[in-house]
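Let's sit down with a protein and look at its sequence and fold side by side. Please make up or recall a protein chain and show it to me in full. Label the sequence line and the structure token line clearly, so we can match residues to local backbone shapes. Go ahead whenever you are ready, and we will take it from there.
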Amino acid sequence: MIRIGILGDIGSGKTYVAKSFGYPVFNADEEVARLYNKDREIYKKLRKKLPKYFNSFPVNKKNVSQAILNNKKNLKKIIKVVHSGVRKKMYLFLKKNKSKKFVILDIPLLLENKINKKNDVLIFVKANKTDIDKRLKRRKNFNPHLIKKFREMQLSLDYKRRKAQFIIENKFTKKSVKVSIKLFKKNLQNERSSIRY
């Protein structure tokens, strides 16, 4: 199994790119939402650490946002609790798909939380900053202060770009992503063939 990790800025279209490959995708954001809605243990841990914000189950995302906005240290506390649950879900996903040739890891803090492995193939999704900002502003619960705090938690985009073996340019059109993925698959195949022989 070859694990493909998706890197990039918030709003760069990482999830869209991940789904466009046609391989099984582990989406950490979706898993976090499920944990908030269904995992009482996660709720209890959050309540223990931040009782002021977490006092009813399922976890309300507005409370999560409020906790982060009130104190940036709260973001680290929340990530620490939720991260263990996400890791468990990821292991189950990898076990379920162990016979697959490729899997995609769409995890915002892939490098920051050291989830990646040495042999993972890393892809950086490059997108125009103006386009990213436009897309973020269209999001239902857009909050620039929240996004700023999440970005502060992440490694620099330059570092992520340097760590990646491939760059996919997302111009926010199906065609541009499709062409980039086709080229990536061809390059990956050639690279693996040269290593094998």
